[in-house]
Specification:
20 strands; Rossmann fold; single chain; about 25% helix; five-stranded antiparallel sheet; alpha+beta; six-stranded mixed sheet; about 350 residues; ABC_SmlMolc_Importer; 8 helices; elongated
Length: about 350
């Protein structure tokens, strides 16, 4: 069993009458890439600041390596933070920016040079030592900010939406770069984002938050394929979410039809919600599938067509490489393993 490097226990945080975190408890494992994911205002950045020591919780404790750090100031924690605004020193060159923290620690010139040179190599900026900050691209500036944080050898690196200011192509490149750096150094990364694709691409573990409450925690595959509730299903990628009734183990009714599924353990005739991902719907000829519907719109997305179709008062989103004309009637097939059943519960939204 992997060791927990951070344990957050029963954290509450309010700003005036606004409750930001509501009894939040979370374990973060050593050498893990964990992402806090959720919409604006869900409490993910506040959680990060409490770990860093920039915010104090109203109630609860933060444990690091089995020591209570709840009331420790930021500079006494083995944690460094990289923000969306990199806060680099414009009057210093790249080498001086990265070396800044080491000089504060009064390391020898030789040791500083060794550490900075090594870090420049890791972030692919060797030979850039004397370049000014203003001469760098956004992605290069972000690498300098990461190098400045990592050169101090923190046990944990906290990243608060550090890719938010980058364009799409550079953002995708930096996602892979960050994951590579984290694996190479074996440091625990705690990453904050509202970008679902970013979280799925980079994380070992995703924590989905809403209104200060953890909705689900798991691997990217678990979060995507087995959402715990309709909020998670809707927030992580596109989904068709329908009301249904669990007639029996492996048998569900929705869209006025009975389907076989792979879920069990529900009460007979229990009202549930059904999730079907758009890419899991198969298009067949009219009257050849389980459902007939009319195509309302078709958008080409590069690798697939995104279609909106309707049957009676229900709408379906379908992702398929097969083209269908607007106005045409198509059949839909949904296999048992592509039907995910969720309990119908009221969540904190």
């Amino acid at each position: 069993m992997e060791q927990n490097i951070i344990e957050i226990k029963g954290i509450y945080k309010s700003y005036g009458s606004n409750d930001v975190l509501d009894n939040l408890s979370l374990n973060i494992r050593k050498n893990e890439f964990l992402t806090l994911l959720g919409p604006s205002g869900c409490g993910k950045t506040t959680t990060l600041k409490i770990i860093a020591g920039f915010e104090n919780a109203d109630k609860g404790t933060v444990i690091c390596n089995e020591k209570d750090i709840t009331n420790l100031p930021p500079y006494k924690r083995q944690v460094n933070t990289v923000f969306q605004k990199y806060a680099l020193f414009p009057h210093m060159n790249i080498y001086e920016n990265i070396a800044f923290g080491l000089k504060i620690k009064k390391l020898s010139k030789k040791e500083i040079e060794k550490k900075v040179t090594s870090m420049l190599k890791i972030v692919s900026l060797s030979g850039f030592e004397k370049r000014s900050i203003d001469s760098l691209s956004g992605g290069q500036q972000q690498r300098v900010a990461i190098a400045r944080a990592l050169v101090n050898e923190p046990e944990i690196l906290l990243l608060d939406e550090p890719l938010g200011a980058l364009d799409l192509k550079l953002r995708k490149e930096m996602q892979l770069e960050l994951k590579k750096i984290q694996k190479e150094l074996g440091i625990t990364f705690v990453f904050v984002t509202h970008d679902q694709e970013e979280a799925l691409t980079m994380s070992d573990t995703i924590v989905v938050m809403n209104k200060g409450v953890i909705q689900q925690m798991g691997t990217p595959e678990d979060i995507y394929n087995e959402p715990a509730n309709s909020f998670v299903a809707d927030f992580i990628g596109e989904s068709n979410i329908l009301d249904g009734v669990m007639l029996d183990d492996y048998k569900v009714e929705f869209s006025n039809r009975v389907f076989e599924c792979v879920d069990k353990g529900f009460n007979k005739n229990e009202k549930i919600e059904v999730v079907v991902r758009p890419e899991d719907i198969k298009i067949v000829n009219e009257n050849k599938g389980m459902i007939n519907c009319t195509v309302n719109s078709v958008i080409f997305k590069g690798v697939h067509y995104e279609m909106e179709a309707s049957e009676e008062n229900k709408k379906w989103i379908i992702h398929n490489t097969k083209y269908a004309e607007v106005g045409s009637i198509i059949g839909l097939d949904i296999y048992p393993e592509d039907i995910h059943i969720m309990k119908k519960v009221l969540i904190n939204e």
